[in-house]
Write a structure and sequence with these properties.
295 residues, mainly alpha, Serine Threonine Protein Phosphatase 5, Tetratricopeptide repeat, 2 domains, 16 helices
């Protein structure tokens, strides 16, 4: 009588051989069949639209996008999805040219998506860059993107983020251009806030320029005077005497006949070491006082 099968194999023939249900090439064929079935069941256009709406992509979806890109490397929407799914490891040399092309020539959705992807990648890499050369390169790329994108129709959340980044990169005019897209009047409070932040960092000239930009958009004389004085005083606080006096000339505007402002300028010009200019402002002050302008 024969022994049990387990005993016979173990005792006579050694280890029991493992059964191979499938091999690597068969798994590849199965995967391709599954992908083909997905393409047949779900129309590609509808599927791409659905993937656009997803903020978080799982590993299976990323794998599907990669395979879809291999099949259609010229499909702009699929390229955007792949770029988004590989944001943190995005190879700039491989995707940047295509993305920048879509920023300039794509549909409105493609423009917005390509712009957002590049903005996120540049910003993230700039924040973590260690070498000065790399920081300068990424800053230059980011500035060019912000300049190009300022003429696009973007969602309000993107506009606000791009405005903040423009101010952060000391591009106040560009930041103002973005903010004006979502506000019909100059956002004085935003400009003054950025000026206060620059002042806290010790960037006196940048802070003063923000305050004076806000002054130019002020509606009331009281607000214009306050911001004007704040800007000039910020220059003087860092002993930037000549820029302070030049800025006073450039931004005086409708405050030229305002007596409190003229008194302030007399003191400021004297503090800046320019007695001739102080005398000129004093002469204007006397002239307006004698002309009966109320103090």
């Amino acid at each position: 009588m024969l022994p049990d099968r387990s005993k016979r194999y173990a005792g006579v023939d050694g280890d029991i051989p493992r059964l191979h249900l499938t091999n690597l090439w068969q798994l590849v064929v199965i995967a391709l069949l599954v992908l083909t079935l997905l393409v047949v069941i779900f129309p590609r256009r509808r599927l791409v639209d659905s993937l656009y709406e997803q903020q978080n992509l799982d590993e299976l979806t990323r794998s599907y996008i990669q395979n879809l890109y291999r099949v259609e490397p010229d499909n702009a929407d699929v390229a955007l999805l792949l770029a988004r799914s590989q944001g943190k490891t995005l190879n700039l040399s491989a995707f940047e040219a295509n993305l920048l092309k879509l920023v300039a020539q794509g549909t409105q959705r493609q423009q917005q998506e390509a712009t957002q992807i590049l903005f996120d990648v540049y910003s993230q890499r700039l924040a973590s860059a260690k070498m000065e050369k790399e920081r300068l390169d990424l800053s230059s790329r980011l500035v060019m993107l912000l300049l190009q994108s300022s003429y696009l129709r973007l969602p309000e959340t993107m506009v606000q983020a791009f405005a903040a980044k423009s101010f952060e990169l000391d591009l106040p005019e560009l930041g103002l251009r973005y903010l004006q897209q979502v506000s019909h009047s100059k956002p004085l409070q935003a400009l003054e806030d950025y000026g206060d932040r620059a002042l806290a960092r010790g960037d006196y000239a940048v802070a003063a320029s923000y305050f004076l930009m806000a002054r130019d958009g002020a509606v009331t004389v009281v607000e214009a005077r306050r911001l004007f004085e704040k800007g000039i005083q910020t220059y003087l606080a860092d002993s930037l005497n000549q820029p302070a006096m030049q800025a006073a000339r450039d931004h005086l505007g409708d405050l030229a006949s305002d007596l409190p402002t003229l008194r302030f300028l007399v003191r400021s010009a004297a503090a800046a070491g320019d007695p001739v200019l102080a005398a000129d402002y004093a002469h204007r002050l006397v002239f307006h006082t004698e002309a009966g302008v109320p103090p």
